[in-house]
Design goal:
The structure is a homodimer of 183-residue chains. The first copy, chain A, is built from ten helices and no strands. Chain A is elongated and about 55 Å long. By secondary structure, the first copy, chain A, is mainly α. The interface between A and B is medium-sized, with 23 and 23 residues. The structure holds a DNA duplex (30 and 30 nucleotides).
Chain lengths: 183, 183
Amino acid sequence: MDRRQRKTREAIFSAFIDLLSKKDFGQITVGEIITHADVGRATFYSHFETKDYLLKELCEELFCHIFDATNNEQSEHRHLFDCDAPNSVFLHLFQHLQKNDNNILELLSCQNNELFLLYFKINLQRLVVSQLPLFEARKSEILPDSFWVNHIASTFIETVRWWIDNGMKESSETITEYFCLAV
Amino acid sequence: MDRRQRKTREAIFSAFIDLLSKKDFGQITVGEIITHADVGRATFYSHFETKDYLLKELCEELFCHIFDATNNEQSEHRHLFDCDAPNSVFLHLFQHLQKNDNNILELLSCQNNELFLLYFKINLQRLVVSQLPLFEARKSEILPDSFWVNHIASTFIETVRWWIDNGMKESSETITEYFCLAV
DNA sequence: TCTGTACTGAACTCTTTGTTCATTATTATG
DNA sequence: CATAATAATGAACAAAGAGTTCAGTACAGA
C-alpha cells in the first residue's frame, strides 16, 4: 500500500476516533472529518464509500486487534472459558479493554453506534461458540445454543457498558467476577 | 385537545410506525412521513420539533400503555417478580409483546433505534428496582444493585430480541422459562 | 529520471431539513 | 347559529450536508 494512502487512511481514522469521543456518530459530518484529518473531500470518498463504511472498517481493524490477541493467548492454555479460572479469556478481554487501546471504550459507550456493538457481538459470539461446552452444563442442556450464546455475549457487552458508565472504578478481576456471577 | 390535532397526530404516528416496519429509523425522512400521513410539512413541524422527538413521544405512548397494564396487574398479586411463579410479571410482559399491540415488535427488532431501546430499558429498570428484594438473594448480596438491575433489564430485552429474530416460535411460557434460567 | 497514481480544491447537483406566511378550513363556545 | 380562535395548507425559501466530477499538482516507487 502506497505510503500516501496509509497516511491519509490513518489521518481519517484518527480524526474520526477523535470526533467519536466528543459527539455521537450520527452527528458527525464528512465535512468535520476531512477538516480534522486535513484531507480533501474527494480523497475521503476515494477511501470510503460512506461514513458507515468508515465505521465498519474501523471496527474491523479494532476487533481484529483485540480478538487476535485473545486467540493467541487462548492457544497457550486450556479451559480459558471457565469463568472461575483466574486466566479466563474474559479476564483478558476486560484487562485489554481497561488499557483502552485505540479508544475502544469511547466507541462502546457512545450513543448511535449500533453498528459497532453489532460487530463486537459477532466477534464475541464466535469466541463463545468455539468454547460452548465449557460453560455451565445445567443451563446449556435446557437453553437453545443460539439463545445461550447470545445471552453470554450480550451480558459481556452490558457488563462492559456498566463498567464504563460507572467510571471503571472496579478492577478487571472484580468485573470478571461480576460477569461470571451474572451469566 | 382539538380533534384536528388528535387526528393529525395519529396520522403521523401511524405513518411513522408503518415506515418503521419497513426501514430503519435513520433512513426515514420527514418527507416520507408527511406523504404517508397526508399532512403538510408545516403541520408536522408544528407537532414535533424533530424526527427524534416524534420517536420519543411515540415511545412514551407505547410504554405508558404496556407498563401501566403490568402495574395494574401487579397490584392484584404478590411476588409477581418471582420468575418461577406462573403469574410472573415477566410472563405478562412476554404475553403482551406476543400480541404485538401497536407494532412494538418492529420497533424492538429494527436497527438504529437506540433511543427506543433506551426508553424500554429505563421503564424496565424502574419495574425491576421496585421489586429487587424478590430476586435471588445470593447474587443480590454480591453484585452492586445498579449492576444487577441493569443485568436483569438487559437480559429481558435481549431475550425479546432473540425471540423476535427466531420467528417467535416459542410460547410465552417457554420464553419466560429461558429468561428466568438465564438471569 | 520517469511513469503511474494519489491528493487537491473548487464547483456542482441533489436531497433533506426546518422556517415562513398568507390563505383556507374547522373547531369550540357563547 | 354566529363568531373568534386556532389548526391545517401548500408553496416557496434558506441552509446544510452528501456525494460527484475534473483538471491540475505532488509524490512514491522502480
